[in-house]
Amino acid sequence: MLKQGLELKQTQKLSPLQIQTIKLIELPIQELEQRIRKEIEENPVLDEEQPSEKETDEAPREVSLSDYKEDDSIPSYRLRSDNYNSRDERPQYSTFSVKESFTQSLQEQLGYRNLTEHQYAVASFIIGSLDDDGYLRRSLDSIVDDLSFRANVETDEEEVQQMLSIIQEFDPAGVGARDLRECLLLQIRHFKKTPEVVNAIKILTNHFNEFTNKHFQKIMNRMNLTEAELKAAMGKILKLNPSPGGQIDDTYTDQAQQIIPDFLLEYRDGELRLSMPRFSVPELRVNKKYADLLMEAANSSEREKKEAAAFVKKKLDSAKWFVEAIKQRHNTLSSTMQAIVDYQREYFIDGDETNLKPMVLKDIAEKTGFDISTISRVVNSKYIETHFGIYSLKYFFSEGLENQDGEEVSTRELKKALLECVDNENKRKPLTDDELVEQMTAKGYKVARRTIAKYRDQLGIPKARLRKEL
After folding, report:
1. What pLDDT is stored for residue 406 in this prediction?
2. In this model, does residue 217 exceed pLDDT 50?
3. Is 224 left (phi over 0), alpha (psi -120 to 50) or beta?
4. Residue 45 clears pLDDT 70, i.e. is over it
5. Is 252 inside any structural domain?
6. Are residues 262 and 356 in the same domain?
7. With contact defined as beta carbons under 8 Å apart, do 186 and 177 qualify?
8. b/e for 142-167, b at 16 or more Cβ within 10 A?
9. Do residue 199 and residue 262 come from a single domain?
10. Of 5, 118, 181, 264, which is least packed with CB atoms within 10 Å of its CB?
11. Which of 24, 22, 25 is nearest to 35 (CA)?
12. Same-domain check for residues 338 and 388
């Protein structure tokens, strides 16, 4: 049986300005610059050229669309945006800069080898197959197949192995290894063959599992070593680099892209002063040619000019929403960061982690009046430069637990206390998780064993057995 009736529903639809603002808030400063340039390229109404000398003598021209006869609903639009000015002096701030490309360094070393064109192609492909840390984690047969299908180079596993052996002689030592054991052996083979180096090579070759699991007594028994001899050999191994590719930044990877702080916080004369660098953000204005076209078309009855005016109006609306969205982004980011600085004032004065209060997104949402989702977008991928370093905004957020006095402390403070316990332990007999609970309790922190295990994992601290040293 069919039923017919009316149902009233309340729905919320985001305006083009709101959608534009949400998208821009998520972007860090580098991506914002790219987004602005893309908008300028795609929207002919927007222009970033500076006014000519003649124009600068006059007041900025205002274009009032409400004067047009064609459509009274067309909103007025200001000719210039005063949110950013590319003529402002650019503030100085730090960035994480990049060095020579890891891949470029290896390719340059390859060029010094006396290889045929075919061999060079194979070796070059292997270099391109290395991971960021310098390891080759692909099988030789898959490289043979890829060389055939992708590079039209016919080869076999024997030749790939020969070229890999050549690459494994390059700097940094250990590059081209298939696993950690091979990486360490590639490095230590260059050492002078002293007794401790010979023992280290035997440990890596024959007792690698015992070495990684720190079963020192088993190694001493099987190799007939004294504790002093094992300690000397271990000292050689621990000086090796498990991630050779990390010595050279790779210009072509995301990890090596420059990080430009979105905020700058200075502490002067007892005051915290927050600012937002305006790096490479161009001044936006309406292109005069299109403004004149719309003005002319609005007073014309010709159909073609009316259609042109409709196109320009659409682009003008889009430009207005875009510039306004940039303003709202600036205001939202500024308000949010200021709220964070106010909330964590004691911490931002000297950077002492013990002064970092528990803080979640909801706390800042309540202070600013923004939605939690908006705060989340602001925090994501944003950085601030302070007088004690550059930090991701996510760093300042942490949950809290109560100490024995009933005061709430941040999880970051708890982790710092846990790290101190581990740093000060007897490495010959590391503290178990239960013993760490006792140590933390003695410091005044109420934490369960499972909490200790969770924080230990988050800090990258191994279990007690794996922290054991001679």
Report:
1. 55
2. yes
3. left
4. yes
5. no
6. yes
7. yes
8. ebbeebeeeeebebeeebbeebbebb
9. no
10. 5
11. 24
12. yes
Is 81's pLDDT higher than 70? no
Gap between the Cα atoms of 337 and 326, Å rounded = 16
Q: Label residue 54 by pLDDT band (50, 70, 90).
A: very low
Question: What is the rounded CA–CA span in Å between residue 212 and residue 367?
Answer: 50
pLDDT above 50: residue 437? yes
pLDDT at residue number 395: 85
Q: How far is CA 112 from the centre of its chain?
A: 35
Is the model more confident about 147 or about 398? 147
Q: What is the pLDDT of residue 407?
A: 56
306: left (phi over 0), alpha (psi -120 to 50) or beta: alpha
Residue located via tokens 């403070």: 413
- On whether both 38 and 113 belong to a single domain, the answer is no
Ramachandran angles phi, psi of 364, nearest 5°: -75, -35
Boundary-marking domain end, from 376, 397, 418: 397
Note whether residue 8 is domain-resident.
no
- On whether residue 301 sits in a domain, the answer given is yes
Q: Encoding tokens for residue 163? A: 């070229």
Please give the pLDDT value at position 431: 87
- Assess whether 284 and 373 both reside in one domain: yes
| Arithmetic mean of pLDDT over the chain | 77
Residue 9 lies in a domain: no
Same domain membership, residue 282 and residue 357:
yes
pTM of the model: 0.50
* Out of 51-65, 115-129, 346-360, 378-392, least confident range: 51-65
Query: Last residue of some domain: 370, 397, 424?
Result: 397
According to the 3-state scheme, what is the secondary structure of 216-251? HHHHHHHHCCCHHHHHHHHHHHHCCCCCHHHHCCCC
* Residue 226 lies in domain: 179-240
Q: Which long-range contacts (CB under 8 A, 24 or more apart) does 302-306 make?
A: 306/70
- If one counts the domains in the chain, the total is 4
User: Residues 385, 262: one domain?
Assistant: yes
| Cα→Cα distances 263→67, 258, 260, 392, Å | 41, 15, 9, 10
User: Do 23 and 154 belong to one domain?
Assistant: no
The continuous run of DSSP H or E covering 306 comes out as: helix 303-343
Write out the H or E segment, with its range, that includes residue 384.
strand 383-386
Q: Tell me the per-residue pLDDT of 390-430, one tens digit each, with 9 for 90 and over.
A: 888 988 887 666 556 555 566 777 888 888 888 888 888 88
Give the list of residues 6+ apart from residue 194 with CB closer than 8 angstroms, or none.
none
Which CATH number is 463's domain given? 1.10.10.60
